[in-house]
Design goal:
Blueprint: E1 3-4, H1 5-12, H2 16-23, E2 31-33, E3 39-41, H3 43-61, H4 75-100
Helix pairs in contact: 1-2, 2-3
Length: 101
């Protein structure tokens, strides 16, 4: 499957600039352009970049790359999720104040 720079960057949790940097080292046969003149990467090229990015991320951080946490799509679920986060932050804040005294 052919992917754009943005799609691959989102999938790997890195910036588009990081993907562009790694594209420079790919052979031309693994890249191309779509009808909108966006740079595309073949599935083989994406695998090569993914191996490089994951290896560097694990090497520097010692952890696997993290997925971005997106809010739920449903508005009610978003509100519920945000309220839970707010309650957790408030609880943590009060615990920190209590332990400080």
């Amino acid at each position: 499957m052919v992917k754009t720079i943005k799609q691959l960057a989102d999938e790997l949790g890195v910036s588009k600039q990081t993907i562009r940097y790694h594209i420079k080292s790919l052979p031309v046969k693994f890249t191309g352009k779509d009808s909108k003149n966006r740079i595309t990467i073949t599935s083989t090229g994406a695998k090569i970049i993914k191996e490089k990015v994951v290896k560097k991320t694990v090497h520097f951080t010692g952890n696997k790359p993290q997925q971005k946490n997106f809010l739920p799509v449903n508005k009610e679920e978003q509100e519920s999720s945000l309220l839970k986060r707010l309650d957790l932050l408030e609880q943590t804040y009060h615990e920190q104040l209590a332990s400080k005294d």
